[in-house]
Write a structure and sequence with these properties.
The chain is mainly α. The chain folds into two domains: 39 residues, no CATH class; 85 residues, no CATH class. It is 32% helix and 6% strand. The protein is built from six helices and two strands; from the N terminus they run αααβαβαα. A two-stranded parallel ribbon has the order 1-2. The longest helix is centred in the C-terminal third of the chain and has 10 residues. The radius of gyration is 16 Å and the shape is globular.
Length: 135
């Protein structure tokens, strides 16, 4: 468990849970008894995929990871995704980022805006929709 998680849990606040899991295997998370006791998908929830999906290569099915959660989300729920995109990114910037993650345990995966939009399949995008983080 990370120090950040330990600090959150040390306060003894209700509604905080840290589990060690792999987002590439979402069913392990969704079947976790403590997780199921805390998160009630029959009620509206907020699901955040922040700075995670761009580390999952296509062979590990990032769409499937997101869909495992979105299939369970009740009406009125929200999904937020942050993801690096190749749209409008200079080739030298992409090369620099690829080089920085070359020896990392997870590569940096650039997707197009259309590919990122697919994480929202079956959901209604609300304003401002899919936008650049600087916007």
């Amino acid at each position: 468990m990370t120090r950040h998680n330990e600090a959150l849990l040390a306060n003894g606040q209700n509604g905080i849970l840290a589990i060690e899991a792999d987002i590439r295997r979402p069913h392990g998370i969704l079947a976790n008894e403590d997780f199921c006791d805390l998160i009630d998908f029959s009620r509206p929830v907020g699901v955040l995929f922040v700075a995670v999906l761009h580390f999952i290569p296509e062979k590990d099915d990032p769409q499937g990871s997101a869909a495992a959660f979105t299939r369970l989300m009740a009406r009125g729920s929200y999904l937020a995704v942050s993801h690096i995109t190749s749209d409008g990114t200079e080739p030298d910037v992409i090369a620099t980022i690829h080089d920085a993650y070359r020896n990392a345990s997870a590569p940096a995966i650039f997707r197009t805006s259309d590919q990122v939009r697919q994480f929202f399949n079956g959901l209604n995008l609300i304003d401002p929709g899919l936008v650049d983080v600087s916007d």
